[in-house]
Amino acid sequence: MPKNANTITMHGHLTRDPELKYTTTQVPVVEFGLASNGWKEGDVCFIDVKAFGKQAEPINKFLSKGREVIVTGRLEYRQWEKDGKKHSKHSIVANDVTFCGGATKDTDSQTRYEPADTEDIPF
User: 72-109, pLDDT tens digit by residue?
Assistant: First the structure.
């Protein structure tokens, strides 16, 4: 692994239903929130997650608020200015999303979707 690898794995529950959109080149992208418990009781980390390509549509179809997942990907840091105020935010760009917990809809109890081809990801 490279000396300064940017890799993160988080286990938690969706805080909202996934939202599916498409890029201008019709690459699917899904976004959802993730809550993960910390080491201390009441210590919760909230983070947004984005997934591109072939994993986006199944995530949108089979996951909903409250579902348990394991997300592996890279951290992304964004900064912007709005109304004269500076804002910043970390999020995860998912390479792999594993569905955990009980089955819902047409899913198995644990389903794994591999990352999209990198040439399809617009960054």
Answer: 999 999 999 999 999 999 999 999 999 997 655 444 44
Torsion sign over Cα 98, 100, 106, 108? positive
CA angle 54, 59, 41 (to 5 degrees): 135
Going by their DSSP bridges, the two strands 44-52 and 19-22 should be labelled as unpaired
**What phi-psi label fits residue 101: left (phi over 0), alpha (psi between -120 and 50 degrees) or beta?**
left
Written as one string, the DSSP assignment of 41-105 is: TT-EEEEEEEEEGGGHHHHHHH--TT-EEEEEEEEEEEEEEETTEEEEEEEEEEEEEEE-SS--T
Domains and CATH numbers, the chain: 8-120 (2.40.50.140)
User: Kind of pairing, strands 85-99 and 44-52?
Assistant: parallel
What residues pair up with 36 in beta bridges, in sequence order?
Answer: 45
| Tens-place pLDDT, residues 45-62 | 999 999 999 999 999 999
